[in-house]
Amino acid sequence: MSKTFLFELVVPDKLVYSGSVEFVTAVGGLGEFTVLPGHTFLLTTIEPGIVRFSVGGSIKEYAVGYGYAEVRPDKMIMLVEFAVTEDEIDKSELLKQIKESEEKLYSSVISEAERLAYFKQLLRLKAKEKLANR
Question: 14 with 80, same domain?
Answer without folding.
Answer: yes
